[in-house]
Amino acid sequence: MIVLKNISKKYEGKLVLSDLSLEISEHETLCILGVSGCGKSTLLKVMAGLELPDSGSFEIDEQKMLDTPAEKRGIVYMSQEPFLFPHMNVFENIAFGLRVRKWMNSEVEEKVNSLARRLGLTDELMKMPHQLSGGQKQRVNFGRSLIIEPRLILLDEPFGSLDSQTRAEMQQLFHDVRKEKKITALFVTHDIKEALIMGDRIARMDKGQLKVYPSSEAFLNSGDEDITQELSFWKRMWTCLSEI
């Protein structure tokens, strides 16, 4: 169980996170929606250990995370940009976390090759990052995150810079792998459709506060203006396609 209580954070006097509390169950993916600047990325950075809150607590299975160094939290942060090591090939980028943990070469090779097959990267393992497409780079980034089997993955609009086809492929890949690997994740997006596809539950962040809906159905029936407009758009599109 992941528990945040009364998390607050200010930047230059501006309140970015305001007394925020949240619980996430093991193996659950919670999607957080919100406009730019509402505090979504700040929340993820606090959980990853990249930022310190001004107040509040954060625990995983009753272990106090705010007192734990970032590298010992068992949490992986994935942003929109892959940030691969440019001097390492795909194999070594994926293997990096295992190398740091002093795994034996035979174990590293077996684990990386197995995951590369799952990610469709077997033929790319000896390539350098500059030889990859945007979708391939994000697959490598995803593999590097998964290989260490983290307690929690934080995804900050990870597919936002991809074209629509590649984005759909990555959404399906994450959907499949998270079920297979029983991943616990916090997935930030500004796209309502993506949130519905990716999340077990959905939350909306506004002015540093978070409203969590108990189910996708509750979210869709909330009467939120943005949701109503989005649903109306897709209904109109479906009507137009049906008349063709």
Task: Give a quick set of tags describing it.
244 residues; alpha/beta; Rossmann fold; 2 domains; six-stranded mixed sheet; four-stranded antiparallel sheet; 10 strands
Summed up:
It is built from 8 helices and 10 strands. It is an alpha/beta fold and 244 residues long.
Structural write-up:
This protein has about 240 residues and is of the alpha/beta class. The protein folds into two domains: about 1-75 and about 150-244, 3-Layer(aba) Sandwich (Rossmann fold), CATH 3.40.50; about 85-150, no CATH class. Helix content is about 40%, strand content about 25%. The strands form two sheets. The chain has a six-stranded mixed beta sheet, with helices on both faces. It has a four-stranded antiparallel beta sheet with strand order 2-1-4-5, with helices on one face. Helix 5 links the parallel strand 7 (about 150-155) and strand 8 (about 185-190). The longest helix has 19 residues, at about 225-244. It starts with a strand and ends with a helix. The model has no long low-confidence stretch (mean pLDDT about 85).
CATH-assigned fold name of the largest domain: Rossmann fold
Q: How many structural domains in the coordinates?
A: 2
Percent in helix:
25-40%
Taking all Cα atoms into account, the compactness measure Rg is 19 Å
| CATH class group of the largest domain | Alpha Beta
Characterize the largest beta sheet: strand count, sense, and whether it forms a barrel.
6 strands, mixed
